[in-house]
Design goal:
- It is a single chain.
- Helix 10 (283-296) packs across helix 15 (419-430).
- 39% of the residues lie in helices and 13% in strands.
- The longest helix is centred in the C-terminal third of the chain and has 26 residues, at 457-482.
- The chain has 17 helices and 13 strands.
- It has helices spanning 16-33, 83-93, 95-103, 122-127, 140-148, 154-161, 191-205, 220-227, 257-263, 283-296, 334-338, 351-356, 369-377, 391-401, 419-430, 436-451, 457-482; strands spanning 7-12, 36-41, 64-67, 111-114, 131-136, 209-212, 239-242, 270-274, 299-304, 342-346, 360-365, 382-384, 405-406.
- Helix 4 links the parallel strand 4 (111-114) and strand 5.
- By secondary structure, it is α/β, with parallel strands linked by helices.
- The protein folds into two domains: 7-248 and 453-482, 3-Layer(aba) Sandwich (Rossmann fold), CATH 3.40.50; 257-445, Rossmann fold (3-Layer(aba) Sandwich), CATH 3.40.50.
- The structure holds uridine-5'-diphosphate.
């Protein structure tokens, strides 16, 4: 049976960094392009749904948000399995539930949209005669390396991984070894990861369309290369649709201690420090960061997590060793010295609201792509502190190409970055006079706001997707009538 509106089924893999942009895409399809939307969410652990991290969004148009039953992958992975491998296995194990739910739908869905880790589900779309889309919740540059990956031969791999030479991507900026993806950092080359990424690259290229959370003017060169037959257009069969920046909107009346504190600070005087939903630092690095923020003399809000190599039983607010409540993994007396100038938030902060606040003047970030977009749409320059996945590529793009960020001399997880360098980076971002980074990011902010308005390039990209889905819907309806 057919509905009158195209029906998009979206599939989000575990992790807030995937869930948030998939939900934003769903909202956009429903509110601006007349779709019915169902979002299936794979969660790593059912208990996350009770945590404040997992709040299904309230939207004017109702989205049908469905949690797939949690999958147990303990027998399929071991302690050496990378996060990426675990995500792929989780998504694979969730396929039977997804298939059963799609097959039970009253109205035949028109399209399946999956993220990077959900590409195996595209086979289900074929089974049910749906259009197949992939939503890349990262840059077009990351998409470029992913679709090029299956064509990297042994010699090119050796030159990059072992000889540490740049990795060429047809028609795009090469990736320097220092900026490369995690999977090239493993000197032995994890063949499972390599073959998994090869498969994903092929599956993406053969989809009906690829949606990317970027926009035309942000990455014009790479987007051209993805379409151009002389470059990546040769291997990418799918059309590429830059549809971003899709970021969580700020909530209107967001009252909290941190927002009250921000209200009292001067314009653009505070740097916000956060490493995303999962980023943690070593004990030594956490301490150096604390000293660096203090030395910088600038105001800050820091979302702090206990260090990974610290005492496993250390709990941020319960275990303290200092008279002023400073936890044991921060320098003694830190809370007293930073009083009035700094604010420490344990574990999680209302990031989109913070970045949109007029008192924020900088973002010290791990460069996850959602955080990066949130910084750009608010016109906030960054200290780029990449930790894993494709974050180093994002940092390179921000510092060298877009020139809206500074980054340390060495990759943060390659060694400890000292307090003086941290303080210096904070000062460079926060000084207000003659700050070209700030001017450039404000320019990006204007461009980001424009592309999502009716007639803007990202709006038009989603309109094209919507047209394809309407055509598909009509074809399916005609077939159903003919049957
Ligand atoms: N986030 C937040 N509060 C926090 C940390 C993260 O709201 O304290 C949100 C942030 O706004 C972003 C997402 O979580 O939307 C993190 O996604 P990102 O791609 O930046 O990084 P990841 O967590 O995937 O590494």
């Amino acid at each position: 049976m057919q509905n009158t509106n195209p029906h998009a089924v979206l599939l989000a893999s575990p992790g807030m960094g995937h869930f948030i942009p998939v939900v934003e895409l769903g909202k956009r399809l429903a509110t601006h392009h007349g779709f019915d939307v169902t979002i299936f969410v794979v969660v790593a652990d059912a208990s996350i749904t009770e945590s404040p991290l997992f709040k299904p969004p309230r939207t004017p148009n109702p989205l049908n948000l469905v949690l797939l039953p949690p999958v147990d992958i303990s027998a399929l992975v071991d302690s050496t399995s990378s996060v990426a491998s675990q995500l792929v296995i989780m998504m694979r194990e969730a396929l039977p539930s997804l298939r059963a739910d799609i097959s039970a739908m009253k109205y035949h869905p028109t399209a399946l949209i999956v993220d990077l880790f959900g590409t195996e589900a595209l086979a289900i779309a074929e089974e049910f005669d749906m259009l197949k889309y992939v939503f890349i919740t990262s840059t077009a540059w990351f998409l470029a390396v992913t679709v090029h990956f299956p064509y990297i031969d042994e010699e090119a791999e050796h030159n990059h991984r072992v000889m540490k030479r740049p990795l060429d991507i047809p028609g795009c900026r090469s990736i320097r070894f220092e900026d490369t993806l995690d999977l090239f950092l493993d000197q032995t080359g994890d063949r499972n990861l390599f073959s998994g990424f090869t498969r994903v690259g092929m599956e993406i290229s053969n989809a009906d369309g690829i949606l990317v959370n970027t926009w035309q003017d942000l990455e014009p060169l790479t987007l051209r290369a993805l379409e151009n037959e002389k470059f990546l257009g040769r291997v990418v069969k799918a059309s590429v649709y830059p549809v971003g920046p899709l970021v969580r909107p700020t909530r209107q009346s967001s009252k909290s201690e941190v927002m009250d504190w921000l209200d009292m600070q001067p314009m653009e005087s505070v740097i916000y420090v956060s490493f995303g939903s999962g980023g943690t630092l070593s004990a030594k690095q956490t301490s150096e960061l604390a000293w660096g923020l203090e030395l910088s003399q600038h105001r800050f809000i820091w979302v702090v997590r206990p260090p990974v190599d610290g005492d496993a039983s250390a709990n941020f607010f319960n275990v303290t060793n200092s008279h002023d409540g400073t936890p044991s993994f921060l320098p003694d007396g830190f809370f007293t010295r930073i009083r009035n100038r700094g604010m420490v938030v344990p574990m999680w902060a209302p990031q989109t609201e913070i970045l949109a606040h007029k008192s924020i003047g900088g973002f010290f970030s791990h460069c996850g792509w959602n955080s990066t977009l949130e910084s750009m749409v608010n016109g906030v320059p960054m200290v780029a502190w990449p930790l894993y996945a494709e974050q180093q590529m994002n940092a390179a793009m921000l510092t060298e190409e877009l020139e809206v960020a500074v980054q340390p001399k060495i990759r943060p997880n390659a060694g400890v970055i000292e307090r003086e360098e941290i303080a210096e980076m904070v000062r460079r971002v926060m000084e207000l006079k003659g700050n070209e980074m700030r001017d450039k990011v404000k320019e990006l902010q204007r461009s980001a706001n424009h592309v999502l308005m009716q007639g803007g390039s990202s709006y038009n990209s989603l309109s094209r997707v919507s047209k394809e889905c309407e055509l598909k819907l009509h074809r399916l309806s005609a077939m159903a009538l003919g049957a």
